[in-house]
C-alpha cells in the first residue's frame, strides 16, 4: 500500500474533562474508517485532530504517504467537509474555491473546478454569491473546496448534512472514487451514509 493514517493512544481533554482516550487505528489506502458515537462523544473533535486542526492532549497521529512519514504541511494531504466549516457568503462559489487554492499555495485549476461543480450540480450557480445558496448548495460547495487539491485523505463529518437525494447520490459517487485512490474517514451515526467500511471506532464520550 502506498500510504496509511495511524493513531496511537490519542486522548483529548477540554477543561480537565476527558472527551476520549486511547484511540488507536491504522487505515490504509483503499480503506474507510467509520467514526460513530452519541452526541457529545467527540466525533467532530477526533476528525479535527486527524485533519491536523486540533492537537491531541496525548498520543499521536501518524501520516505516511509515498513511502515516507509526512511531518510538514500535512494539511495539504487532507480534504475536510463538516457542518461547522464556513464559506465566505459575500464571495461566489468560484471565488471561495479560488481563495482556497491560493491559501494552499496551489495553482488554480478552472477546468477541474468546473468538473467538480458540475458533478455536484452547482455549475450553473458557481458565479452567484454564496449568501444566495440554500444550505444544501453550500454543503455541495464545501465538497468542491475539499476535493480541489486532490487530497489523499478525505474526512467527512456528517457527510449528507442538508443534502437532497440528488446531492446524496453525487456525494456517494465522490466517496466511492476517494476509496479507489486514497483514504476515506466518515463521522456519522447514520450507517446509510457509508456503504462499506473496513474499520470502525465507536466513541462513548464522558458522562
Question: Can you tell me about this structure?
Answer:
Helices cover 29% and strands 29% of the residues. It is α/β, with parallel strands linked by helices. It has a single domain (3-198), classed as Rossmann fold (3-Layer(aba) Sandwich), CATH 3.40.50. The protein has a 5-stranded parallel sheet, sandwiched between helices. Strands 2-1-4-5 form a 4-stranded antiparallel sheet, covered by helices on one side. Helix 2 (93-103) packs parallel to helix 4. The longest helix is centred in the C-terminal third of the chain and has 17 residues, at 165-181. The radius of gyration is 17 Å and the shape is globular. The termini are far apart.
Distance between the termini: 39 Å
Q: What percentage of residues falls in helices of 4 or more residues?
A: 25-40%
List the helices and strands in order.
EEEHEEEHHHEHEE
Report the strand count: 9
SSE class: alpha/beta
Contiguous uncertain segments of 5+ residues: none
- Rg measurement, Å: 17 Å
CATH superfamily placement:
P-loop containing nucleotide triphosphate hydrolases
Strands in their spatial order, largest beta sheet: 6-7-8-3-9
Mean pLDDT: 92
Largest sheet: 5 strands, parallel
Estimate what percentage of residues fall within beta strands. Answer: 25-35%
Question: What is the helix tally?
Answer: 5
- Could you say how many structural domains there are in total? 1
Amino acid at each position: 500500500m502506498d500510504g496509511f493514517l495511524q493513531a496511537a493512544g490519542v486522548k483529548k481533554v477540554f477543561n480537565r474533562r476527558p472527551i476520549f482516550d486511547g484511540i488507536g487505528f491504522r487505515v490504509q489506502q483503499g480503506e474507510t474508517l467509520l467514526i460513530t458515537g452519541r452526541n457529545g462523544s467527540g466525533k467532530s473533535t477526533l476528525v479535527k485532530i486527524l485533519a491536523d486542526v486540533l492537537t491531541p492532549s496525548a498520543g499521536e497521529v501518524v501520516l505516511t504517504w509515498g513511502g515516507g512519514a509526512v511531518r510538514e504541511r500535512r494539511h495539504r494531504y487532507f480534504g475536510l467537509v463538516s457542518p461547522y466549516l464556513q464559506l465566505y457568503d459575500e464571495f461566489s462559489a468560484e471565488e471561495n474555491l479560488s481563495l482556497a487554492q491560493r491559501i494552499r499555495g496551489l495553482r488554480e485549476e478552472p477546468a477541474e473546478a468546473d468538473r467538480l461543480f458540475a458533478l455536484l450540480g452547482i455549475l450553473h450557480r458557481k458565479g452567484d454569491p454564496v449568501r444566495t445558496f440554500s444550505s444544501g448548495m453550500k454543503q455541495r460547495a464545501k465538497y468542491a473546496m475539499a476535493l480541489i487539491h486532490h487530497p489523499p485523505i478525505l474526512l467527512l463529518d456528517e457527510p449528507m448534512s442538508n443534502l437532497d437525494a440528488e446531492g446524496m447520490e453525487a456525494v456517494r459517487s465522490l466517496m466511492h472514487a476517494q476509496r479507489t485512490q486514497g483514504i476515506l474517514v466518515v463521522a456519522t451515526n447514520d450507517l446509510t451514509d457509508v456503504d462499506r467500511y473496513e474499520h470502525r471506532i465507536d466513541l462513548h464520550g464522558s458522562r
